[in-house]
Structure formats: C-alpha cells, structure tokens
From TrEMBL:
Keywords: Membrane, Transmembrane, Transmembrane helix. One of its GO terms (biological process) is thylakoid membrane organization. InterPro entries: Integral_membrane_TerC, Integral_membrane_TerC_rswitch. It holds the Pfam family TerC. Residues 21-77 are annotated as: Disordered. The keyword Transmembrane helix applies. One of its GO terms (cellular component) is chloroplast thylakoid membrane. Coiled coil: none annotated. The chain crosses the membrane at residues 90-110, 122-143, 155-177. Signal peptide: none annotated. This is Thylakoid membrane protein TERC, chloroplastic.
C-alpha cells in the first residue's frame, strides 16, 4: 500500500535466490488503466489489511487469553494454599486422622462387636493422651537445642516414623511375653502405678536439659557441630563427618519416646490383649502427633489438669491389671468410661481455668 506521493521501491522475494524489484507510483494519470490499477491496488490493500487485522487480532487474543488461562487454571489453587496458615493445615490433618481413627473403630464394631470396639476406643484415647503428654518433652528439647521453627517438622516426621517402628516391635514382643508369662502383668502394673505416683507427687518437668541423662549421653558419644546447616543431619567438616544439632535433637526425641513407651505400652496391655487393636490404636494416636504439636505447642501450659488426669488413668489401669491377675475382671466398657471421663474432665477444667484467668486480666 503506497500512499506517499513519491516513488517507492518495494523488494519482494517470491523464491529463494530471486529478487524482484517493482517500482510503483501512487498517482497515475486518469484513465481506464489507472482506474483498473487503482482498483486492483485497492483490492490488494483491502485484502492485506484484512490479513494484517486477522494476524494482529489473533496475536492480541493470544496475548490477552494467555494470562487469563494462567490465572484461572494455574494460580487459583496455589493462591488458596498460600492463604492457608500452618495452623489451618494442621487442623485439617488432625481432623482427617481423627475421622480415620473413628471410622476404623466403627469397622471393628461392625466386624467384631461392641466390646472389641470399646477396647479400641479406650486404647486410642489412652494412647492419644499419653502422646500429648510427650509433647511437653518435645517442646523442652526444641527449646534447649534452639531448633529453628522451620526444621521442627522434619525432626518430628522422622521421630514419629521411628516411634511407630519401635512400638510395633515392642508390642509384638510384649504380646508374646504376656501370653507366655502371665505374671508379667504384675510388673507392668507396678510400672503404671509408679508412673501415676510420679505424675501426682513428682516435681515439675525440668526446663533445663543440661543435666538430663539422655542429653548428656548423646552429647558424649555423638560428635556434633556447634551450628545448624539448613535441615541437614550430617555434614563433612574438614574431612570428618559430624552430626548437626538437628540430628542430636532427633536422637534425644527418639530416646525420650522409648522412655515414654515404658508407660504407654503396659497401659494399652491393661486395656486389651489384641495385637491388631494395640498396634492400630498406637499408630492412629502417633500419626496426628506432628500436626497436633503445631496446634497446641503454644498453649501447652494451659492444659494444667491434663497430667493429673493421665495420672488417674494410669493408676486405674494399673489397679485393673492387678485385679485381672487375681481373677476379678473389670468390663471394658467401664474402662472406656473411666478413661473418657478423666481425660475429657482434665481438658475441660484446664480450658475453663485458662478462660477465667484471661477474663480476669
């Protein structure tokens, strides 16, 4: 389209290696030939304009539609996930674990009857309360080693996986031992009664772990660097492999869980002897522990009456094991009622006291 009054040279390349130069004039003298030329040029210009308009329109449509597709398809879900806080995510995970645990208990009731389901729910509530009690120690360990918040979930994930494996082995050995030696029940009952006594008459949890036996032993036998290196457990320092404080934290938590298992495993044996119920109740109780830590780690001090409630439950189960050994059987439904009443009562009283103190302020 040559709208200038001057002459222009337009180079066209119809085929490789050929160069065709066309000299055109925008103004011609009046005449049929000029009119026909102008008509042809006008038709060509119109077609070229249409083609250019289509190409430009398609490019504009592509450019304008691409971000819309990106916003609608690719960024809505990440935006929702980004808006979800860690506490919201933890609430969702805890709810899923609790729902799965309840559905499993319902399936036991449909398959094996109400008594087996009562054993399962009593064991699950007991193990869940003892797992929450473990969180007190986890908080102390994280504070003592000054573990950054972003690395705590990694330590808890490995710690929970190790706890599941260790407890599975301990449960299998415990079931075999009890079936072979019935008098082991008295030993387990003594452990539970002593643990109950410690929860009532013992001192408060130690806030300084520098003199803790587990911590001192780990620091003595494990070469540890004096700094964190991201979320790594091991680093090569001057050609020597050393553990970071994160690995030391993990080892202390694992050994602490083993120490707590001395209470929890005999306690579940006081409720049921079924290996499937014992193992499943432990797994469900431990599975939500990491998310539960995110939820209640900042408000653990408000659960003032939870430990006394756990002490009552452990004392009751220890006495129940002694009665069972002597031939006096306490119904499973009664055990479930005692466990539920004590634990829920401890939590409710703790929350009411915390609420009243908050109002007084």
């Amino acid at each position: 389209r040559l709208s200038s009054p001057w002459l222009h040279a337009v180079q066209l390349r119809p085929a490789p290696g050929r160069l065709l130069t066309v000299v055109a004039a925008s103004r011609r003298s009046p005449g049929d030939g000029g009119k026909r030329g102008r008509k042809k040029r006008g038709r060509r210009a119109t077609e070229a304009d249409q083609e250019d308009g289509l190409s430009v329109g398609s490019e504009m449509e592509t450019k304008s539609s691409t971000p819309r597709a990106t916003v609608n398809d690719g960024s809505v879900k990440p935006a929702l996930e980004a808006s979800m806080t860690p506490k919201d995510s933890a609430i969702r995970r805890v709810a899923l674990v609790v729902i799965a645990a309840v559905l499993f208990g319902v399936s036991i009731a449909l398959k094996d009857g109400v008594e087996k389901a009562s054993e399962y729910f009593a064991g699950y509530l007991l193990e869940q309360s003892l797992s929450v009690d473990n969180l007190f120690v986890f908080i102390l360990v994280f504070k003592y080693f000054k573990v950054p918040l972003e690395y705590q979930n990694r330590v808890l994930s490995y710690g929970i996986a190790g706890a599941v494996i260790f407890r599975a082995v301990l449960i299998i050995l415990g079931v075999a031992t009890i079936q072979s030696f019935e008098a082991v029940n008295l030993f387990f009952a003594a452990i539970l009664l002593f643990s109950s006594y410690k929860l009532f008459a013992g001192d408060e949890e130690e806030s300084d772990l520098s003199d803790n036996f587990i911590v001192k032993t780990c620091q003595k036998f494990i070469p540890v660097t004096d700094y964190y290196d991201g979320d790594r457990f091991l680093i090569n320092q001057d050609g020597i492999w050393k553990a970071t404080p994160l690995l030391l934290t993990l080892v202390v938590i694992e050994l602490s869980d083993i120490a707590f298992a001395v209470d929890s495993i005999p306690a579940i044996f006081g409720v049921t002897r079924d290996p499937l119920i014992i193992l499943s109740s432990n797994i469900f109780a431990i599975s939500g522990l990491r998310s539960l830590y995110v939820l209640i780690s900042e408000s653990m001090s408000e659960l003032e009456y939870l430990q006394p409630a756990v002490g009552i439950v452990l004392g009751f189960i220890g006495a129940k094991m002694i009665f069972d050994f002597c031939g006096y059987h306490i119904p499973t439904e009664a055990s479930l009622a005692v466990v539920t009443t004590c634990l829920s009562g401890g939590v409710i009283l703790s929350l009411r006291k915390a609420s009243s103190e908050e109002r007084d302020k």
